[in-house]
Amino acid sequence: MTIKGDGVAIRRFGAHSSLAGKVSLILFAAVLVFAARAQGTPPAGTPPAGTPPQGGGLPPGFMESLKDYKFPDDISKFTGLDFLMLVRRTDIRSSFYKSDMTATITTVSVSPDRGTFVRKEQIYRRDKDDAFLMITLEPESRKGQGMLRVSNNMWRYDPTSRKFTHTTLKDTYENSTVRNNDFRRWQRSLDYTVESLTTGKLGKYDVIIGELKANNDEVPFPRIRMYIEKQRMIVLKVEEFSLSGKLLRTAYYTEYVQIGDSYVPTVQIFQDGLIPEKRSQVTYTNISTQPVPDYIFTKEYLERMSQ
After folding, report:
1. Helix, strand or coil for residue 158?
2. Residue 113 sits in which domain range?
3. Average pLDDT over residues 284-301
4. pLDDT band with cut points at 50, 70 and 90 for residue 77
Protein backbone atom coordinates (compact mmCIF):
# COMPACT_ATOMS: atom_id res chain seq x y z
CA MET A 1 0.00 0.00 0.00
CA THR A 2 1.35 3.46 -0.88
CA ILE A 3 0.34 6.69 0.83
CA LYS A 4 1.71 10.21 0.80
CA GLY A 5 3.25 12.14 3.66
CA ASP A 6 5.08 15.48 3.48
CA GLY A 7 5.40 15.01 -0.25
CA VAL A 8 7.31 11.76 0.18
CA ALA A 9 6.01 8.41 -1.03
CA ILE A 10 5.40 6.06 1.88
CA ARG A 11 4.91 2.33 1.37
CA ARG A 12 3.93 -0.02 4.18
CA PHE A 13 4.79 -3.69 4.31
CA GLY A 14 4.97 -6.34 7.01
CA ALA A 15 8.19 -8.10 7.96
CA HIS A 16 6.45 -11.50 8.23
CA SER A 17 3.40 -12.90 6.48
CA SER A 18 1.86 -13.83 9.85
CA LEU A 19 2.38 -10.26 11.01
CA ALA A 20 1.40 -8.42 7.86
CA GLY A 21 -1.64 -6.80 9.41
CA LYS A 22 -1.53 -4.37 12.28
CA VAL A 23 -0.12 -5.96 15.40
CA SER A 24 -2.60 -5.84 18.24
CA LEU A 25 -1.27 -4.09 21.30
CA ILE A 26 -3.18 -6.56 23.43
CA LEU A 27 -2.02 -9.81 21.86
CA PHE A 28 1.72 -9.53 22.42
CA ALA A 29 2.11 -13.25 22.88
CA ALA A 30 0.78 -14.06 19.44
CA VAL A 31 3.37 -11.82 17.86
CA LEU A 32 6.23 -13.57 19.60
CA VAL A 33 5.77 -16.94 17.89
CA PHE A 34 8.71 -17.47 15.60
CA ALA A 35 9.70 -21.09 15.00
CA ALA A 36 13.16 -20.74 13.61
CA ARG A 37 16.54 -22.12 14.58
CA ALA A 38 19.72 -21.43 12.69
CA GLN A 39 21.15 -24.30 10.64
CA GLY A 40 24.13 -24.53 8.37
CA THR A 41 27.89 -24.13 8.41
CA PRO A 42 29.54 -20.81 9.28
CA PRO A 43 31.07 -19.32 6.16
CA ALA A 44 34.68 -18.33 6.30
CA GLY A 45 35.79 -14.79 6.77
CA THR A 46 35.71 -12.32 9.65
CA PRO A 47 35.63 -8.57 9.05
CA PRO A 48 37.98 -6.12 10.68
CA ALA A 49 36.86 -4.27 13.78
CA GLY A 50 34.36 -1.50 13.20
CA THR A 51 35.16 2.16 13.65
CA PRO A 52 32.75 3.86 16.06
CA PRO A 53 32.04 7.47 15.05
CA GLN A 54 33.43 10.31 17.12
CA GLY A 55 31.38 13.29 18.26
CA GLY A 56 28.13 11.85 16.93
CA GLY A 57 29.22 11.92 13.30
CA LEU A 58 30.01 9.12 10.86
CA PRO A 59 33.44 7.70 9.96
CA PRO A 60 34.76 8.53 6.49
CA GLY A 61 33.36 6.29 3.79
CA PHE A 62 30.46 4.95 5.84
CA MET A 63 27.91 5.75 3.13
CA GLU A 64 30.14 5.51 0.07
CA SER A 65 31.52 2.04 0.85
CA LEU A 66 28.22 0.42 -0.18
CA LYS A 67 27.77 2.11 -3.56
CA ASP A 68 29.62 -0.49 -5.60
CA TYR A 69 29.55 -3.38 -3.13
CA LYS A 70 28.38 -6.67 -4.64
CA PHE A 71 26.66 -9.14 -2.33
CA PRO A 72 26.76 -12.87 -3.14
CA ASP A 73 23.61 -14.20 -4.80
CA ASP A 74 23.74 -17.32 -2.61
CA ILE A 75 23.38 -16.48 1.09
CA SER A 76 25.36 -19.59 2.01
CA LYS A 77 28.41 -17.95 0.39
CA PHE A 78 28.34 -14.84 2.58
CA THR A 79 31.59 -14.07 4.39
CA GLY A 80 31.90 -12.09 7.60
CA LEU A 81 32.75 -9.00 5.58
CA ASP A 82 29.69 -9.49 3.37
CA PHE A 83 27.48 -9.73 6.45
CA LEU A 84 29.00 -6.63 8.03
CA MET A 85 28.27 -4.71 4.83
CA LEU A 86 24.73 -6.12 4.86
CA VAL A 87 24.33 -4.84 8.43
CA ARG A 88 25.63 -1.48 7.22
CA ARG A 89 23.00 -1.52 4.48
CA THR A 90 20.26 -2.04 7.10
CA ASP A 91 21.78 0.74 9.23
CA ILE A 92 21.66 3.21 6.36
CA ARG A 93 18.24 2.19 5.04
CA SER A 94 16.61 2.43 8.49
CA SER A 95 17.97 5.92 9.13
CA PHE A 96 17.59 9.44 7.73
CA TYR A 97 21.03 10.74 6.82
CA LYS A 98 19.78 13.07 4.09
CA SER A 99 16.99 14.70 6.12
CA ASP A 100 15.71 15.22 9.63
CA MET A 101 12.93 13.04 11.01
CA THR A 102 9.95 13.75 13.25
CA ALA A 103 7.47 11.15 14.49
CA THR A 104 4.97 10.25 17.17
CA ILE A 105 5.93 7.23 19.27
CA THR A 106 3.44 5.14 21.23
CA THR A 107 4.94 2.68 23.72
CA VAL A 108 2.81 0.00 25.38
CA SER A 109 4.65 -1.81 28.17
CA VAL A 110 3.45 -4.89 30.02
CA SER A 111 5.06 -6.28 33.17
CA PRO A 112 3.94 -8.53 36.06
CA ASP A 113 4.49 -5.83 38.69
CA ARG A 114 3.21 -2.73 36.82
CA GLY A 115 0.54 -4.16 34.56
CA THR A 116 0.02 -2.28 31.28
CA PHE A 117 1.40 1.23 30.86
CA VAL A 118 1.03 3.46 27.78
CA ARG A 119 3.15 6.47 26.84
CA LYS A 120 3.07 8.78 23.84
CA GLU A 121 6.03 10.91 22.80
CA GLN A 122 7.10 13.28 20.07
CA ILE A 123 10.60 12.61 18.75
CA TYR A 124 12.91 14.72 16.61
CA ARG A 125 15.99 13.05 15.05
CA ARG A 126 18.99 14.33 13.14
CA ASP A 127 20.72 11.10 12.22
CA LYS A 128 23.75 12.61 10.51
CA ASP A 129 24.71 14.04 13.92
CA ASP A 130 23.34 11.12 15.99
CA ALA A 131 21.13 13.64 17.81
CA PHE A 132 17.55 13.35 19.02
CA LEU A 133 15.08 15.02 21.33
CA MET A 134 11.97 13.32 22.73
CA ILE A 135 9.13 14.93 24.70
CA THR A 136 6.38 13.04 26.54
CA LEU A 137 2.82 13.95 25.48
CA GLU A 138 0.84 11.35 27.46
CA PRO A 139 -0.07 10.39 30.13
CA GLU A 140 -0.85 13.76 31.67
CA SER A 141 1.11 12.88 34.82
CA ARG A 142 4.33 12.50 32.74
CA LYS A 143 3.67 15.28 30.24
CA GLY A 144 6.69 17.45 29.61
CA GLN A 145 9.31 14.89 30.57
CA GLY A 146 11.99 14.63 27.94
CA MET A 147 15.26 13.19 26.74
CA LEU A 148 17.99 14.89 24.70
CA ARG A 149 21.09 13.49 23.00
CA VAL A 150 23.65 15.83 21.43
CA SER A 151 27.38 15.30 20.77
CA ASN A 152 27.49 11.94 22.59
CA ASN A 153 25.89 13.48 25.71
CA MET A 154 22.43 12.40 26.87
CA TRP A 155 20.14 13.93 29.46
CA ARG A 156 16.71 13.29 30.91
CA TYR A 157 14.60 16.25 31.97
CA ASP A 158 12.00 16.34 34.76
CA PRO A 159 9.70 19.39 34.50
CA THR A 160 8.63 19.02 38.14
CA SER A 161 12.12 19.48 39.58
CA ARG A 162 13.27 21.39 36.47
CA LYS A 163 16.50 19.39 36.54
CA PHE A 164 18.52 17.57 33.90
CA THR A 165 19.97 14.18 34.79
CA HIS A 166 22.71 12.52 32.79
CA THR A 167 21.75 9.18 31.29
CA THR A 168 23.27 6.72 28.80
CA LEU A 169 22.25 4.64 25.80
CA LYS A 170 22.43 1.53 28.00
CA ASP A 171 19.79 2.70 30.47
CA THR A 172 16.30 1.22 30.39
CA TYR A 173 13.44 3.53 29.45
CA GLU A 174 10.82 3.94 32.19
CA ASN A 175 11.54 0.51 33.71
CA SER A 176 10.43 -1.18 30.49
CA THR A 177 12.17 -3.54 28.07
CA VAL A 178 13.01 -0.53 25.88
CA ARG A 179 16.50 0.97 26.08
CA ASN A 180 17.46 4.57 25.31
CA ASN A 181 19.55 3.18 22.46
CA ASP A 182 16.36 2.02 20.69
CA PHE A 183 15.38 5.61 19.89
CA ARG A 184 18.55 6.59 18.06
CA ARG A 185 19.68 5.79 14.52
CA TRP A 186 20.82 2.22 13.84
CA GLN A 187 24.61 1.82 13.72
CA ARG A 188 25.24 -1.83 14.51
CA SER A 189 27.84 -2.04 11.74
CA LEU A 190 29.91 0.49 13.69
CA ASP A 191 29.34 -0.91 17.17
CA TYR A 192 29.82 -4.63 16.47
CA THR A 193 32.14 -7.02 14.67
CA VAL A 194 31.08 -10.33 13.13
CA GLU A 195 32.23 -13.54 14.81
CA SER A 196 30.33 -16.25 12.89
CA LEU A 197 27.50 -16.81 10.42
CA THR A 198 24.82 -19.38 9.70
CA THR A 199 21.80 -19.51 7.40
CA GLY A 200 18.29 -20.55 8.34
CA LYS A 201 14.57 -19.86 8.18
CA LEU A 202 12.45 -17.33 10.03
CA GLY A 203 8.85 -18.11 9.21
CA LYS A 204 8.84 -18.54 5.43
CA TYR A 205 11.86 -16.32 4.86
CA ASP A 206 15.45 -17.34 4.19
CA VAL A 207 17.68 -15.43 6.56
CA ILE A 208 21.34 -14.91 7.26
CA ILE A 209 22.08 -15.16 10.98
CA GLY A 210 25.12 -13.37 12.33
CA GLU A 211 26.75 -13.63 15.75
CA LEU A 212 28.29 -10.28 16.63
CA LYS A 213 30.36 -8.90 19.51
CA ALA A 214 30.49 -5.25 20.62
CA ASN A 215 33.68 -3.32 19.98
CA ASN A 216 32.85 -0.57 22.50
CA ASP A 217 31.15 -0.33 25.90
CA GLU A 218 28.51 2.26 24.97
CA VAL A 219 25.99 -0.25 23.58
CA PRO A 220 23.51 -1.98 25.94
CA PHE A 221 24.34 -5.54 24.87
CA PRO A 222 27.87 -6.93 24.41
CA ARG A 223 26.70 -9.75 22.14
CA ILE A 224 23.85 -9.95 19.62
CA ARG A 225 22.47 -12.42 17.07
CA MET A 226 20.91 -10.77 14.01
CA TYR A 227 18.41 -12.34 11.61
CA ILE A 228 18.43 -10.49 8.28
CA GLU A 229 16.28 -11.34 5.29
CA LYS A 230 18.55 -11.28 2.26
CA GLN A 231 15.93 -10.47 -0.40
CA ARG A 232 14.65 -7.24 1.14
CA MET A 233 17.75 -6.60 3.27
CA ILE A 234 15.75 -5.87 6.42
CA VAL A 235 16.30 -6.91 10.02
CA LEU A 236 13.55 -9.25 11.25
CA LYS A 237 14.83 -10.23 14.66
CA VAL A 238 17.73 -9.53 17.04
CA GLU A 239 18.59 -11.61 20.11
CA GLU A 240 20.66 -9.69 22.65
CA PHE A 241 22.97 -11.35 25.15
CA SER A 242 25.21 -10.69 28.11
CA LEU A 243 28.97 -11.23 27.70
CA SER A 244 28.55 -14.71 29.22
CA GLY A 245 25.89 -15.61 26.63
CA LYS A 246 22.70 -15.25 28.67
CA LEU A 247 19.72 -14.07 26.60
CA LEU A 248 18.66 -10.68 27.98
CA ARG A 249 16.20 -9.49 25.34
CA THR A 250 14.74 -10.31 21.94
CA ALA A 251 13.74 -7.56 19.51
CA TYR A 252 11.23 -8.19 16.71
CA TYR A 253 10.77 -5.75 13.83
CA THR A 254 7.35 -6.73 12.53
CA GLU A 255 6.31 -3.88 10.24
CA TYR A 256 8.25 -1.46 8.06
CA VAL A 257 7.37 1.73 6.19
CA GLN A 258 9.32 2.87 3.14
CA ILE A 259 9.87 6.63 3.10
CA GLY A 260 11.97 7.70 0.15
CA ASP A 261 15.10 5.54 0.32
CA SER A 262 14.58 4.66 4.00
CA TYR A 263 12.90 1.52 5.37
CA VAL A 264 11.77 2.38 8.88
CA PRO A 265 10.75 -0.34 11.38
CA THR A 266 7.52 1.22 12.61
CA VAL A 267 6.43 -1.65 14.87
CA GLN A 268 9.10 -2.90 17.26
CA ILE A 269 8.54 -5.47 20.02
CA PHE A 270 11.01 -6.02 22.85
CA GLN A 271 10.66 -9.22 24.90
CA ASP A 272 12.55 -9.59 28.18
CA GLY A 273 14.78 -12.67 28.14
CA LEU A 274 14.66 -13.19 31.90
CA ILE A 275 11.01 -12.31 32.61
CA PRO A 276 8.89 -13.63 29.70
CA GLU A 277 5.81 -11.70 30.84
CA LYS A 278 7.68 -8.38 30.50
CA ARG A 279 7.54 -6.85 27.04
CA SER A 280 6.99 -3.59 25.16
CA GLN A 281 5.69 -2.57 21.76
CA VAL A 282 6.90 0.67 20.20
CA THR A 283 4.92 2.06 17.26
CA TYR A 284 5.97 5.01 15.05
CA THR A 285 3.30 7.12 13.33
CA ASN A 286 3.06 10.58 11.71
CA ILE A 287 6.58 10.30 10.33
CA SER A 288 7.85 13.47 8.66
CA THR A 289 11.13 14.26 6.89
CA GLN A 290 10.71 18.04 7.00
CA PRO A 291 13.74 20.05 8.24
CA VAL A 292 13.97 20.57 12.00
CA PRO A 293 15.37 23.89 13.30
CA ASP A 294 18.73 23.67 15.09
CA TYR A 295 17.32 25.19 18.28
CA ILE A 296 15.12 22.12 18.88
CA PHE A 297 18.18 20.03 19.80
CA THR A 298 18.92 22.13 22.89
CA LYS A 299 18.23 22.03 26.61
CA GLU A 300 16.59 25.44 26.37
CA TYR A 301 13.99 24.19 23.92
CA LEU A 302 13.24 21.12 26.02
CA GLU A 303 12.75 23.28 29.11
CA ARG A 304 10.48 25.69 27.24
CA MET A 305 8.32 22.91 25.75
CA SER A 306 7.99 21.18 29.11
CA GLN A 307 6.39 24.18 30.80
Report:
1. strand
2. 1-307
3. 96
4. very high
